[in-house]
């Protein structure tokens, strides 16, 4: 129907083992049924972040992409088996189409899995080049306009992180496939392992806040031989659709990844109710992941395989400041972490612990720096942040600001205003709390609201315990201290309090292959996107033992009379 012709590397090949001539079967040439994986050696590097200085080539190209996208409308369809499916109410009434997509993906998987890994890798590397070149500014412009990201926030997401995910996962897949189990007597017995895609289909359910995450969730399972239904977020449709189109242009065949924008619960019901569900690759909030997990649990007796459940969820990320910390680093790191992209990164700092001895300087620095931040249209290159994603987010975030205004334990020391007359704009807001367990210090807000607890310098130990125990999350955290003995101690005390831990650096901004990302506890299954092991989550390994010596007896030597 479609797909590539398997190349020689997937045909049966022979292994000439006569170099082991001293062995029992000295001159015998052994025929193995397992093909030798032949994947060209290549290495990859992180995609450089472009500067967008006035007059630069990338800035001119981005401005022109913004202009063209902002005065056009693009209809984003469902795409099943490569065909665009139109519906009068595509978002809500797609149950039939989802069922069709499940069928197509599960069928396509069988064929796609026969395509040698080296051919798949070639497609991925080509796609990464398309993203880094021809389509870089279209991806960035769609992310800026659709998700309200500034230039730099789009560049690190929809350009660099996306390209890195695609390139590094191809590299990791190649490295993983080199593994050979031990074969102590290779002329008699040869052990090998092959990686199969998961039988059935994988549902990739992505969040609004990172274009790159959508690409990673959908296309890493596909790289490893899975068939995928990709449900993008309603509020990241255009940028995600562009990824789909680029991957298709690079050579991903129809049906392997099916692009299925849909109402969340409708999609969730359909996939968890299918016997062919092989896995869910989710990133988003805790309630959504818990819902998917619960539904999967309810249906467990109906599945053909145990579905793999991978979910990267929310956080309540901390900055802990020790009395020995460098104040300037603390101030700049906290402003960036708490307020960039309106605090809508799962890694954003939203609770901070400052010693009384440094509070005066840190407070002054935070307020002065915050006052410099421009909140405005992301197409104006001097804007620090744009609007928050939608009305729901606006209501949730401003409810915390209103709570801060009313609560006797809380004081807003900077910001606190918001306005939705023309977009959902919220000022970066700094709150001080007298109560370190106040709900503003424990619940995920996912907006530009930072709350600070000022602690007595002699209560460091209590603070470390509090950080570890006062929220259900464990995503990211940062400790600022020049005292390296304390750093060593804190790293042990806070071992379980985050999946990504920063020393004298902000809690955001992980880079693929440099800081593989993910948290534990209620922050997720911690499968470390951007790390070397992630590809294996989407493969079903098969161990193969081949015996070349006839079995002449059933009798063990010690039994002989
Ligand atoms: N840990 C991480 O790596 C990471 C990264 C990015 C975002 N996040 C988290 O994501 C959240 C913000 O993203 P969001 O607002 O898009 O999250 P969300 O949970 O609202 O939505 C995520 C996705 O799930 C879909 N969905 C909603 N209900 C569903 C259901 N019943 N069945 C199936 N799909 C359903 C949505 O349509 C969307 O595509 C925050 O909590 C943030 O911390 C975590
Ligand atoms: N990986 C990103 C966060 C992704 C979640 O939103 C960071 O490290 O800042």
What is the structure about, briefly put?
Residues 96-542 form the Aldehyde dehydrogenase domain. By secondary structure, the chain is α/β, with parallel strands linked by helices. It is built from 14 helices and 22 strands.
Give your account of this protein's structure.
- The protein has helices at 57-70, 95-112, 117-132, 136-147, 151-176, 211-223, 237-250, 264-272, 286-298, 327-339, 356-370, 391-406, 460-469, 484-493; strands at residues 14-15, 30-31, 78-80, 83-85, 189-196, 201-205, 228-231, 257-259, 277-283, 308-312, 317-321, 349-355, 410-414, 418-419, 425-426, 429-433, 449-455, 473-474, 476-480, 500-503, 520-521, 540-547.
- Residues 1-28 have low confidence and may be disordered.
- The termini are far apart.
- It is an alpha/beta fold.
- The chain is 35% helix and 17% strand.
- The protein has two domains: 52-84 and 91-313 and 524-545, Aldehyde Dehydrogenase, Chain A, domain 1; 317-503, 3-Layer(aba) Sandwich (Aldehyde Dehydrogenase, Chain A, domain 2), CATH 3.40.309.
- The structure holds nicotinamide-adenine-dinucleotide and 5-oxo-L-norvaline.
